[in-house]
Amino acid sequence: MDVSHTILEDVDILALSHILKQLPVVQKVDLSSCQLSGTQLSTLSPVLPRVVDLVLFSNSVDSPAMDDLAAVCSESRPSVHMQKLNLSLCSMYGEVAAKSLASVVASTHLGHLDLTGNTRFGNQGLASLAAALPEECSSVTWLSVANCGLQPGCAVALGQLVNKLPKLDELHLEYNCLANSDVENLLEELSSRHLRHLHLDNNHLDDGVVDSLCECLSVRQSLFRTSGGTSPAPPCFIYIHGNRMSEAVLDSIARQRLCSNDRVYQGARYVAQNRVHERSVSSLVQNYGGNFHNFASNSMMSSVGGYLRDDSHLVYIDLDGCHISDDGIRMLNNGGLRHNKCLQYLSVSNNCIHLLGFVTLLEAIVTGLPALRAVAVNDNPVFDNVEMSGALYTSCLQLLGQCSRLILLHLTATCMSDRVGSEIVKSLL
After folding, report:
1. Are 252 and 211 in contact (CB under 8 A)?
2. Treating both helix axes as pointing N-terminal to C-terminal, what angle do 391-400 and 418-428 enclose, rounded to 10 degrees?
3. Is 197 strand, coil or helix?
4. Closest to 360 measured CA to CA, from 316, 323, 392
5. Residues whose CB falls within 8 Å of the CB of residue 217, separated by 6 or more in sequence, listed in order
6. Residues 349-383 pLDDT 10s
7. Would you place residue 393 in the very low, low, confident or very high pLDDT band (cuts 50, 70, 90)?
8. Pairing between strand 374-376 and 408-410?
9. What is the 3-class SS of 127-145, one letter each residue?
10. Partners of 171 in the beta sheet?
11. Contact call for residues 135 and 162 (beta carbons, < 8 A)
12. Please, are residues 267 and 232 in contact by the beta-carbon 8 Å criterion?
């Protein structure tokens, strides 16, 4: 059920509550950007535990509403179905909010918790959450506190939090201000764990943390072998894009082949993209196929385009979440994208692509890419404040009319008005 980006009045909340009451289990309810008040959320609380995937992205979620939800979940715990909770950009901060959140986690079977973008959450919120959680929250496998205002000095809270999440498989800490000491303490806690994805992108880490990263992976392998494992530890991906590593250290990492499986760090991989070198693109493709998700950037696009120009095997490429702008799409196209003969699926969702970049992409599709059948441009401001009488918009419609070989074209969340959507459909038909 998707009612996102809809301003809900109190009568709408009552109607939604009534509908959900009729359903024993609801797979997903998306309430993103509905400008919900705390009172409205409290009204919905009795029916929310039956929702498997609850999205409250970009609302103002206050502590009383979370307390109400926790109370309902606690009372009906055997029948609570909630497994995913998205509280991104919900203005959560402070000790009270953290304790309320901990109560919800303790009262559900939550496996996926997203707190991304609560920039005032900070060290205090993290410490309060870690302290309030029960000793073992065995259900949580995925946690994001990315862009949550974490500052140097949160090492103890991070360690305590991780200790209480024994089955944690993926941890997002991007876009904070973590220092080397915070991460070194965290790595000590993680060295004996089966965590597979640790996202440390865009923090304040420098060369001094690299030895700790290497030691963590080495210890992890040793402990796994001595515990009776008959095979190497599962791959551990540590993402460190956008920090302060020097070129010398990155070259050293490359020489030690930490970007791929090797004898010392069997099964462990680094994504070290603090400073991108053209030679790294073929290595990334070798290790990750076409998945550049979240760790490519504008500066790589010429190299990626050049690789696609010469590659005769890659059939898909994922460039989602790479901060690509219109210039990045131009560099990708000029680098050689349009000359590729094999690519069947291209995704550039969740970037910063406007109409100019979209038109450039359409030109590449029309003039080349004979095998391409599916394109995803979701979550880009393509049609934001578009001038419908302008030449660029006219070119867009004309080029769309020549893309008949595409089977799928995803344009969800591209700031498209009803009128623009209608004209696009007409062009495609």
Report:
1. no
2. 40
3. strand
4. 392
5. 191, 236, 238, 265, 268
6. 888 899 999 999 999 999 988 888 889 998 888 99
7. very high
8. parallel
9. HHHHHHCCCCCCCCCEEEC
10. 143, 198
11. no
12. yes
Sequence-distant (6+) residues with CB within 8 A of 353 are 324, 325, 326, 328, 329, 361, 377, 380, 381, 382
What the block records as the tokens of 329 is 């799409």
Distances (CA, A) of 25 to 1, 49, 135, 404: 12, 9, 29, 40
Asked if 59 and 31 touch (Cβ cutoff 8 Å), the reply is: yes
Q: Do β-strands 316-318 and 345-347 pair in parallel, antiparallel, or remain unpaired?
A: parallel
Please name the residue ranges forming H helices in 10-62: 10-21, 38-44
Report the alpha-carbon distance of residue 303 to residue 172 in Å, rounded. Answer: 27
Instruction: Please state the rounded mean pLDDT for residues 97-121.
Output: 87
Give the Cβ contact number of residue 18 at 10 Å: 10
Query: Among all chains, which residue has been given the structure tokens 């997203």?
Result: 114
The CA–CA distances, whole Å, from 252 to 179, 246, 274, 281, 418 equal 21, 10, 13, 17, 53
